[in-house]
Write a structure and sequence with these properties.
With 322 residues, the chain is mainly alpha-helical. It contains 14 helices and no strands.
């Protein structure tokens, strides 16, 4: 792998501010970002990326390539929790294995956005319809994880309220805003983009940078939870993203994705949810230990992907595509 890709990624301002946030915790600085601000920035990023994706989807149209990509996204969102569940069962109980498997079957929107920024920095084109793949991959993993609990946790006393489960899976704030913004982007097209461009484009990288500063603070505080996960889960949180990205790259090559789209698809396959899935698991599988599935996704997989994973996956694409 070209080391310059990793250096280029690390020297990206948003990633450097992520390191700054982690450093603030390690040196015990009193740096703190008030709670409502990160939530606002998270919603802004979802809105901006969804809206841009909708506008780009109008340009590309619903082609065979789009449909193949979206189908591949759904397949991976269902497949990853299935196979990782049985790996996790080697060391963990059914509840924890299902919750972590669902976490890794779902996606991290911020990792996707960071990868988009990385591609833009390298002047590598990608299609806006990849945002639709992002939207489709969040919910299936939650459903598969809960089905696994139903199948393998035979002595479970609590029954799922499936209406609440489906509501949480498909109408949670991140999915709802992302899909809604995508639809509005489709409906308004180029005119809507011209009207909102100063807001959706001009502010985007500043907000992403500030949000990653906060993510650095949060990730560093979660590192202490890794003591509860053990070597097995730390290794899982690094190796499984690489394996999932590899599978994603194989699919991307098979269906003929461009370099930019392939990187985004591999990042979606490799990332893990630390917002939507943990919220759903806390509500529906209280028997699972949140410190396991949150700390592995947020304190290990997320930093690994944005620092090493993204350039590593791009190197794999350059090798395969050439």
């Amino acid at each position: 792998m070209d080391v310059s890709l990793i250096v280029s990624n690390i020297l990206n301002p948003p990633v450097l501010f992520f390191f700054l946030g982690m450093t603030a915790v390690f040196v015990q600085s009193d740096l703190e970002i008030p709670a409502p601000i990160p939530k606002l920035f998270s919603l802004y990023l979802l809105f901006a990326i969804g809206f841009k994706g909708g506008v780009e989807l109008v340009k590309s149209g619903i082609t065979q390539d789009v449909m193949l990509t979206l189908a591949a996204a759904v397949v991976m969102a269902c497949f990853v929790p299935l196979y990782t569940f049985f790996i996790l069962k080697i060391k963990l109980g059914n509840y924890d294995a299902a919750a972590i498997a669902a976490t890794y079957g779902s996606i991290s929107a911020v990792t996707f956005i960071t990868a988009s920024a990385f591609l833009t920095e390298l002047n590598i084109d990608f299609d806006g319809f990849m945002v639709a793949a992002l939207a489709l991959m969040e919910s299936p993993a939650i459903i598969v994880g809960l089905i696994l609990v139903n199948l393998f946790a035979a002595n479970r006393e609590q029954e799922f309220a499936w209406a609440e489960v489906l509501k949480e899976a498909f109408l949670n704030s991140s999915v709802f805003l992302l899909v809604g913004s995508l639809i509005i982007g489709v409906l308004t097209g180029e005119h809507g983009w011209e009207v909102l461009e100063p807001f959706t484009q001009g502010l985007f990288y500043g907000v992403l940078t500030f949000f990653l500063l906060d993510m650095g603070l949060v990730a560093a505080r979660r590192i202490k939870d890794l003591q509860k996960t053990g070597v097995f889960l730390v290794g899982f949180a690094i190796l499984i993203p690489i394996i999932n990205a590899g599978i994603g790259l194989g699919i991307a090559k098979l269906i003929g994705m461009s370099v930019g789209n392939a990187l985004l698809f591999s990042v979606l396959c490799a990332s893990a949810s630390y917002i939507a899935v943990p919220a759903a698991m806390r509500m529906t599988v209280p028997e699972a230990n949140p410190s396991l599935y949150v700390s592995t996704a947020l304190a290990v997989t997320f930093p690994f992907n944005i620092i090493v994973g993204i350039p590593l996956y791009l190197a794999g694409i350059e090798f395969l595509w050439n």
